[in-house]
Design brief:
By secondary structure, the protein is of the alpha/beta class. Helix content is 35%, strand content 18%. Helix 9 crosses helix 10. Strand 5, helix 6 and strand 6 form a beta-alpha-beta unit. The chain contains 15 helices and 20 strands. The termini are far apart. The strands form 5 sheets. A 6-stranded mixed β-sheet has the order 8-9-10-11-12-20. It has a 5-stranded mixed β-sheet with strand order 3-4-5-6-7, with helices on one face. It has a 5-stranded mixed β-sheet with strand order 16-13-17-19-18, with helices on both faces. The protein binds a DNA duplex (10 and 13 nucleotides) through helix 4, helix 5 and helix 6. Belongs to the DNA repair metallo-beta-lactamase (DRMBL) family.
Length: 478
DNA sequence: GCGATCAGCT
DNA sequence: CACAGCTGATCGC
């Protein structure tokens, strides 16, 4: 594979930046448009069922999660969750719950058609126009690194002019979106965990994947590159770049700033000219506790419930990757294995963390600690789930860990959190965040003292950009 | 028929 | 709301 950049191609991707870190030549309108397009969500799926099935054969761990699909010549496909729990049959999911869900969807869809006979045509027309529109969709400026042939987390724009190295900060959908097994636009640089996930989950051609170790300096296209652990999800990295002309950039990807970063040799020893910053919670109202405090609360609460009701099933919700420490700490302190389905188990095992791997169990009845997709943590779902476990448990205690789960009222006193509960099902939303809180963000910026900051989140509206910029100016004033 | 992408939703 | 997706429908090959 030849990734050489042709000599006549421009090396610089972006225009010069103004004092606020925005390109001088791009008008706010244009930029807002392209950014809102980006954020309006065009999503691909991380897994394709048929692919999963074929992968599954080679992974060889849990065939009970596969089901024959007669419509596909008896090919094995991954069961859906209700099927896995034995609630739904393989052909048509006809439980009351699943029927209700499908019917709701159908009704909404029908409602649209009935309400507006021309609605469908309009949709079609819009869709018909879409290709041209889609083609015009271009990579937002903040994903391009000026003075380099690099882009960051920009895979949904096809080949990007002038880009000969595509960086991926971490394996979350909104960052790798657009990456498929057909990727052929250039080398992808990422951490080794992210690299493994690209291979096993997306079947990206290995010849395009370039794994980099943390804290090791590489020279890529004449630029010195170092990845730093981002304290986000497994494999997440900050990208530190030193151009040959002396300019230094730091792209945080998604990260949770911490005091320990303040003593990282690279962050300590280089002045950063431009900081591309994860500004997810860049608002003083976001003041959630540390991960450790939240984990302590989760463990404490689990102990309390188990004491009251020893046959309690503890459930932790999680997306594809992230939040591992929540269930890892429950597992450690209660001395119980972690059950999760084969798909997630394969992903968790790919991290190569022996402590986590050794705690994973493939038998749901043997462990009182289960990890389920966040979307499953609803009262009715958990009730049905409980019923599939044959009286092994008689209550469910579930945790949804997300940064959005916080309220001004509870503040830092986690014990004030009120769960939603019905019957023997209890669900706690806990403010376990893998993004920086407002204060952590402020402290990080005050420590780093960059010349310019480019927000990479909440940057689509002029108001929020202005708001953030004035915060930055304040932080850097003294 | 299949994978990629879309709108709508949480 | 956003997070980081999930689902069914539709499009392109």
């Amino acid at each position: 594979m030849d990734f050489e950049i042709r000599a006549d191609e421009p090396l610089s991707l972006s225009e010069e930046l103004d004092e606020n870190g925005f390109p001088i030549t791009s008008s706010d309108d244009d930029e807002a448009e392209s950014t809102s397009e980006l954020r309006s969500g065009n999503h691909d799926r991380p897994y394709k069922l048929s692919e999963f099935a074929s992968d599954f054969y080679t992974s060889g761990s849990d065939y009970t999660s596969l089901v024959r699909n007669e419509k596909k010549n008896g090919l094995l496909v991954q069961k859906n969750l209700l099927q896995m729990w034995g609630i739904a049959k393989s052909e048509v999911a006809e439980t009351s719950e699943s029927r209700v869900c499908t019917e709701n969807r159908k009704r909404k869809w029908r409602g649209k058609e009935q309400g507006d006979v021309f609605g469908l045509n309009q949709i079609k027309n819009e869709k018909g126009k879409k290709p041209a529109h889609v083609q015009s969709r271009s990579c937002p400026f903040y994903k391009k690194i000026p003075g380099t042939p690099f882009t960051v987390d920009a895979f949904r724009y096809g080949a990007i002019e002038g880009c000969s190295a595509y960086f991926l900060t971490h394996f979350h959908y909104d960052h790798y979106g657009g990456l498929t097994k057909k990727w052929c636009h250039g080398p992808i640089y990422c951490s080794s965990i992210t690299a493994r996930l690209l291979k096993i989950c997306l079947s990206v051609n290995q010849s395009y994947i370039c794994a980099l170790e943390y804290d090791k300096e590489y020279e890529i296209e004449g630029i010195k590159v170092t990845l730093i652990e981002a304290n986000h999800c497994p494999g997440a990295a900050l990208i530190h770049l030193q151009l040959s002309d002396g300019r230094t950039y730091l792209h945080t990807g998604d990260f949770r700033a911490s005091k320990s970063m303040h003593s990282h040799p690279i962050l300590l020893n280089y002045h950063v000219n431009v900081l591309y910053l994860d500004t997810t919670y860049c608002n003083p109202k976001y003041r959630f506790p540390s991960k450790e405090e939240v984990i302590a609360f989760v463990v404490r609460t689990t102990r309390k419930y188990l004491q009251k009701q020893p046959k309690t099933l503890v459930v932790v919700g999680a997306y594809s990757i992230g939040k591992e420490r929540v269930y890892l700490e429950i597992s450690r302190s209660l001395q119980v294995p972690i059950y999760t389905n084969a798909s997630r188990r394969r992903i968790l095992e790919s991290f190569g963390w022996s402590d986590l791997s050794s705690r994973l169990s493939n038998f749901s009845h043997s462990s009182p600690l289960h990890v389920l997709p966040l979307s499953c943590l609803r009262i009715e779902n958990l009730n049905k789930y409980l019923a599939t476990l044959n009286q092994r448990f008689n209550a469910v205690l579930a945790f949804r860990p997300t940064g959005w789960t916080f309220s001004e009222a509870t503040g830092s006193n986690l014990d004030l959190i009120k769960p939603t509960s019905k019957g023997n099902i209890t669900i706690f939303g806990v403010p376990y965040s893998e993004h920086s809180s407002f204060n952590e963000l402020r402290d990080f910026v005050k420590f780093l003292r960059p010349d310019k900051i480019i927000p990479t989140v909440n940057a689509s509206s002029l108001e929020s950009r202005d708001k953030m910029q004035s915060l930055f100016n304040n932080w850097l004033k003294s």
